[in-house]
Amino acid sequence: MTTLTPSRFQRGASLIEVLVAMLVVTIGLLGVAKLDLETLRSNTVAMERSSAVMLSHSILDRMRANRDVALDAGYDMTLVDLGESCSVPTGVTGLVKADLADWVDEIDDLLGDDACGGIRCDSDGNCSVTVRWDDTDATDDSDAVTVSLTGAI
To answer: What is the pTM of this model?
Structure first.
């Protein structure tokens, strides 16, 4: 009579071993997906901040082209709270109105409808440009993000 050894019956992986391997691979893939999502969120925040800085430089360059009016507070614009309408101040005309209207439209296009900007210049030509937007789509925070830039015109 021959005795059978256990190694003779084992020909492959058992079903439990396969399920455990699939579980380990699934957990690893979920980790990679979470990392990819966090990378996407971080890139979105960085892009929004870069856009806000670019928009600030854009209006400062427009103000440098029309320096006399900017020194007389012709470009000054009050920063409104989130949710309020961001629009060109009443009473401005001509090139200033066109510059501010284009700037507000660019802010809306790049940072969303809730975004707005504010400008404040002193008589020495030092101007502070502030851009504020809501980034709840990119992060879990409910606070507004504000970027301020000060430059000389």
So the answer is: 0.78
φ and ψ at residue 83, rounded to 5 degrees: 95, -20
CB-CB neighbours of 152 under 10 Å: 10
One digit per residue, the tens of pLDDT, for the chain of length 153 reads 566 556 666 667 788 999 999 999 999 999 999 999 999 989 999 999 999 999 999 999 999 999 999 999 999 999 988 878 889 998 899 999 999 999 999 999 999 888 999 999 998 999 999 999 988 765 666 678 899 999 998
Alpha helices, H only, 1-153: 6-9, 15-65, 67-71, 94-111
Q: Locate tokens 């059978």: which residue? A: 4
Number of other CB atoms surrounding residue 16 within 10 Å:
8
Going from the C-alpha of 118 to that of each of 7, 61, 75, 111, the distances in angstroms are 78, 15, 9, 14
Measured CA to CA, the distance from residue 40 to residue 142 in angstroms comes to 18
Structure tokens at 73: 């507070």
- Each domain of the chain, given as residue ranges in start order, spans 13-152
Give residue 7's identity as a one-letter amino acid code: S
